[in-house]
Design brief:
Blueprint: E1 4-9, E2 20-21, E3 36-41, E4 50-51, E5 63-65, E6 69-73, E7 80-84, E8 90-97, E9 109-110, E10 115-116, E11 122-129, E12 139-140, E13 144-148, E14 152-154, E15 159-161, E16 164-169, E17 176-180, E18 191-192, E19 199-201, E20 209-213, E21 223-224, E22 229-231, E23 236-238, E24 242-245, E25 248-253, E26 260-264, E27 275-276, E28 281-283, E29 291-295, E30 305-306, E31 310-313, E32 318-320, E33 325-327, E34 330-335, E35 342-346, E36 363-365, E37 373-377, E38 387-388, E39 394-396
Parallel strand pairs: 6-13, 15-22, 24-31, 33-39
Antiparallel strand pairs: 1-2, 1-3, 3-4, 5-7, 7-10, 8-9, 8-11, 11-12, 14-16, 16-19, 17-18, 17-20, 20-21, 23-25, 25-28, 26-27, 26-29, 29-30, 32-34, 34-36, 35-37, 37-38
Length: about 425
């Protein structure tokens, strides 16, 4: 078997026995390389020269990190893009914003430090060039979206009364906040937030949605609040309990327009099924406690307003006449303006109570020096205040009758 050797050059010149001997696959690192090769046998017979076409060696593609991203303005993470390529390569880049006309490669900027992305819809283009190699192909990034930071929404804890104020803030300096309160998605055409006024909520279970926006950036992600709870103001009760005679006339009122007031008189908790207040009503039973709530279709039911106790007494009896001097007897009328009241009285000077005997008017007095004490009672009412005669009743005997009344008596006549 004949020994054969292959000699080659990489610069397009004809190979000789002094050229490099081919020993295995080779790596071409210079663009424009042309491989020329001959085969020589041990008898020094040289083959014809074989010449390759020109090899074009491109610089390795540059690598962008990140390759497109969503950045939030005001966030702690830098809005920067790092570009790398093979060692010793020069990198050139451009940043295209929106619909700008792309720059030519000859207008690209040499890359030295990470590129700050300042505007939304930016695209980074880059090429690399290493000595002895052709320029790399162009790398085009995915879009970089620079958005305002998502705002924060602060709602009152628990349930607010009458209305609630909602406040917002943004981590993006100079950002405008836009919001909705009807569950729709906010845009830059929605209501603009005024930090001096806040957002006043007058409907319960409202959800506030908000975005932040600033020039040169995309709108932020939508911030969504918890439900804002708002209840009616509690109603007022006038009078608020107290002591009354026969009855108390009560008025309930609410400052909430379009609301209704529901109430109970038996101490039970009122709700939307309880009686509706329409006009003043009478409390005619002692010990009553009024409880009331305000109800509105757009608000939560108010907290319960509870009155003090209503003490309702029977009317104090009236004695007619209250005292005086009478002959043989006196008939005293004892009455109360409380319908169907019973009169209890004493005639021995002791105070009258509900346990005292019932007096039927008129009361006949036939003994002098008697004082009447009386109270009125009625089921459901407190015992009335006591009435007393102004002074003891004076009862005199009939004066004697003289017969004859006038004239001279005879000796035999006796007077």
């Amino acid at each position: 078997m004949l020994f054969r050797s292959v000699y080659y050059t990489l610069d397009g010149s004809a190979p000789t026995l002094a050229s490099e001997v081919y020993e295995g696959p080779m790596t071409l690192v210079q663009t424009g390389s042309i491989v020329s090769a001959v085969e020589v046998t041990e008898t020094c017979v040289m083959s014809p020269v074989q010449v390759s076409r020109t090899f074009s060696i491109k610089t390795a593609l540059p690598v962008l990190v990140p390759n497109g991203a969503n950045f939030a303005l005001g966030a702690s993470t830098p809005h920067a893009v790092t570009i790398t390529s093979s060692p010793g390569s020069m990198i050139y880049y451009s940043v295209q914003v929106g619909d700008e006309i792309p720059k030519k490669v000859s207008q690209f900027t040499p890359y030295q430090t990470p590129i700050e992305i300042e505007h939304t819809d930016s695209i980074v283009r880059a090429v690399a060039k290493s000595g002895g190699k052709d320029m790399s192909d162009m790398v085009t990034s995915l879009p970089f979206v620079v958005a305002a930071g998502k705002p924060t929404i602060t709602v009152p804890a628990g349930v607010s009364v009458g209305q609630a104020r909602v406040d917002m803030a943004s981590t993006t300096p100079g950002a405008m906040l836009y919001y909705t309160t009807d569950s729709s998605t906010p845009t830059t055409l929605s209501a603009r937030y005024d930090p001096a006024l806040g957002v006043i909520i007058k409907t319960t279970r409202t959800v506030v949605k908000a975005i932040a926006a600033t020039a040169g950036s995309a709108s932020s992600a939508v911030a969504v609040s918890p439900q804002v709870m708002v209840a009616c103001e509690s109603p007022s009760i006038t009078p608020d309990g107290g002591t009354f005679v026969d009855f108390a006339e009560v008025t309930l009122s609410s400052g909430v327009a379009g609301a209704s007031v529901h109430f109970t008189e038996d101490g039970s908790e009122p709700d939307v099924t309880s009686a509706i207040f329409e006009f003043p009503f009478r409390v005619q039973k002692t010990g009553a406690v009024i409880k009331a709530v305000t109800v509105h279709p757009l608000l939560d039911t108010s907290a319960v307003t509870e009155s003090l106790v209503f003490t309702v007494k029977a009317a104090k009896p009236q004695l007619q006449p209250p005292s005086g001097v009478f002959t043989e007897k006196a008939e005293i009328s004892i009455t109360s303006t409380t319908p169907d009241a019973q009169i209890h009285c004493t005639m021995d000077g002791t105070p009258a109570t509900a346990d005292s005997p019932v007096c039927v008017s008129p009361v006949t007095i036939s003994s002098t020096g008697i004082s009447i004490n009386a109270v009125a009672t009625k089921e459901g009412l407190e015992v009335s205040d006591a009435a007393a005669s102004a002074s003891p009743f004076i009862i005199k005997a009939q004066p004697p009758v003289l017969t004859p009344e006038i004239g001279r008596a005879s000796c035999r006549e006796r007077v």
